[in-house]
Amino acid sequence: MYKYLYLFISLLFFGCVTRTSSDTVRQNTVSENKPIAHGVSLVAPPDPFPFDYTQDIQAANGNWVAIIPYGFCRTGNPEVYFNMDRQWWGEREAGVLESIRLAKSAGLHIMLKPQLWIPGSWPGDLEYSTPEQQAEWEKGYREFILHFARIAHSTKVDLYCIGTEFKRMETTRESFWRTLIKDVKQEYQGKLTYAANWDSYNQLPFWDELDYIGIDAYFPLSDDKQPGIKSLKKAWQPIVRQVQEVQSRFDKPILFTEYGYMSVDGCTGKTWELEPNINRLPANEQAQADALQALYETWSPLPFWHGGFIWKWYPYDNMYKDHPNDYSPQGKKAEGVFQSIGSN
Q1: Which of 5, 56, 108, 309 could be joined to 39 by an S-S link, Cβ 3.0–4.6 Å?
Q2: Considering its fold, how many domains does the chain have in total?
Q3: Residue 4 within any structural domain of the chain
Q4: DSSP state of 255
């Protein structure tokens, strides 16, 4: 019963195939191991696109793109800055609007996902020591999120993400998030999610207010240099059970708002420990490709999993070629895995 309920919901939201109803069901069924949202997280370019960035996404059989306008703040300083001239073009309003325009022209679905960058830290550690500072930060963050919620509404994007990985504030500031969600719904009437870190999604108290349980799915699976698909699928099983428990509790489908692996030895381990040394680690395209294959084989058959957004995707060649070991699958064995899953 639940399988068909989720299928019906997914067709309403994710399905866009203009064929007969039987063909639509056949194309979208998760039993074919094709994620409903087979998306990429677009790296915002510093300057306007020299050509249409969507062509490579379509060639890789992607059907969604996450467009990410950045704001930033500093630890100890509650001011939130965004849409500033010194930011990269693609992170500002003009770049976001053009990114959305091109994606819609190409028939791609869009998640608008504003994020905060905190130099030397990450949103999960963010918390202010006085009520006055906390209130000032919340006021600034609310302005940031509502600004792009209005853009999400005016451009009719498919999905809006209200926050990413605020691990401490998720539970200590629950009332703020519930009020923010209410305010966003006044500006944007589409689907909503939140991107919780892999180690805090099961503690988030406000999933009931959202349409999707969003997880940045960097779950550590194995520290082996190249563990292999079979062992990775086995390592996923207890995680699947934990995620399914949360999914059942809130009766919401699961979306991986971010997922991905670096193309280095040990890429399925503690990625946050590997990242500072990424350029000094041995390259390993096969380990990255196997990790993606294991993820798709584990999650795609599950009716409550609606796919996700691979981290990350550069808009043109010279950007990803300058970062050969990082998360992008472009130009690597992993791109073939991503492409093949999207073609099923």
Answers
A1: 309
A2: 1
A3: no
A4: E
